[in-house]
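hiii, so i know i said id send this last week but things got crazy w the move. better late than never?? heres the sequnce for the chain we talked about at the cafe, plus the structure i predicted for it. fair warning i was half asleep when i ran it
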Amino acid sequence: MLQPESGVRPASIKPVPAQARSAAEWLAEQYADGTSLVLGIKAMLDDITWDKNRTDDSEAAWERLGRHLGFHSVRPEKQYGTGPDNLWVLSNTLHAVVELKTGCETDTIAKKDLDQLGGSVRWDAENYPEVAQLPVMLHPSTQRHALGISVPGMRVVTPDALNELKRNFAAWAPYWT
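okay and structure toks below
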């Protein structure tokens, strides 16, 4: 598809009015019963994996995770060819700007990955100047490369942290049924 030279302006996104209600409505649309909910959550969590051949699956599953939690969740890079891998609208005043490096196998966070996260934060700030950004990176390491500059306020989700998130989320899912 052709895009104008100046690019495509991202759609206006707003937080959901009530996170719990939004999650419940979205879940009701997605799942016919409790069994399909539990199986769907297991499949979604299995798709968020540290595998260089499945990075798109991980990004898509991370978007769905945001929706399961009741956030407005989008993939700007996929939609517009620019911006973060994922964007969660956490509130009227805060966006989680997420870069997934689930295909990465390095011991440190490379300069290019830190630069990409910084660029994604700037993209979000330019397109949604009324909100603050929470930079998040999924990466196997919390250590930055010596040439890299950390993005202020960034959080890193490591494999251990991701596994804990998956365990807690999966344990919580049966309570929805």
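btw The CA atoms of residues 53 and 103 lie 7 Å apart. thought thatd interest u
miss u guys!!
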